Amino acid sequence: MDSVEDLNVILKGSCRKGNVSISETLADFEKLRISALTKAAEISHLVKEVTIGPNSPVKKDTIRDETPPIEQDKENRNEENLLEDKIAEEMRHTLIIKDYESQLQDSSEELFINLIENLMKNRAEIMKKYWKKQSEECERKALEIRAKKLQLLKSYKKMTI
After folding, report:
1. Which residues lie in Basic and acidic residues bias regions (predicted)?
2. How many CA within 13 A on the CB side of residue 13?
3. Are 98 and 105 in contact (CB under 8 A)?
4. What CA–CA distances, in Å, run from 118 to 110, 115, 122, 126, 132?
5. What is the predicted pLDDT for the residue at 22?
6. Beta partners for 137?
7. CA–CA separation, 126 vs 115, rounded Å?
8. What is the pLDDT, as a whole number, of residue 111?
9. Model-level pTM?
10. Of 122, 103, 123, nearest to 111 (Cα)?
11. CA quadruple 131, 135, 136, 138: dihedral positive or negative?
């Protein structure tokens, strides 16, 4: 059941906003595969050890009949890390980086949208103030011209009378 939930989370995360990254989707499916194999090892009594993933769990029910390893065997084992472990470790780091990149992209998109909205609001306020000032100045000039016309009309009437 967890694998189905993991698949839903992976599909929702990788298809966010229509941006589908093939490498991200492949990394998500690799993570799902590792999770499914780990769960299968925990459930099945036939699987004694899982050799994939950085923390390959050993089945608790089974008793391993091994002789104590020799120091040389330990050195060989340390040198021969499983390819799956290395890939899974890189995948985990890739997934973490991809997650941070998507969060950064989402936050930067939100910040950019907010910045544009603020610029539009500021521009609208500035233009509103500008047009108000222009209309007041135009009205003032119209009143001055009217006053001058009235003054000229009065002076003309005085001259003609």
Report:
1. 58-77
2. 21
3. no
4. 12, 5, 6, 12, 21
5. 73
6. none
7. 16
8. 87
9. 0.33
10. 103
11. positive
- Residue recorded with tokens 């799902």: 32
Residue at 110: amino acid letter:
E
SS (H, E, C) the chain: CHHHHHHHHHHHHHCHHHCCCHHHHHHHHHHHHHHHHHHHHHHCCCCCECCCCCCCCECCCCCCCCCCCCHHHHHHHHHCCCHHHHHHHHHHHHHHHHHHHHHHHHHHHHHHHHHHHHHHHHHHHHHHHHHHHHHHHHHHHHHHHHHHHHHHHHHHHHHHC
Joined together, the tokens standing for residue 34 give 């590792």
Token pair listed for 59: 């089945």
Residue 59 neighbours by CB distance under 10 Å: 17
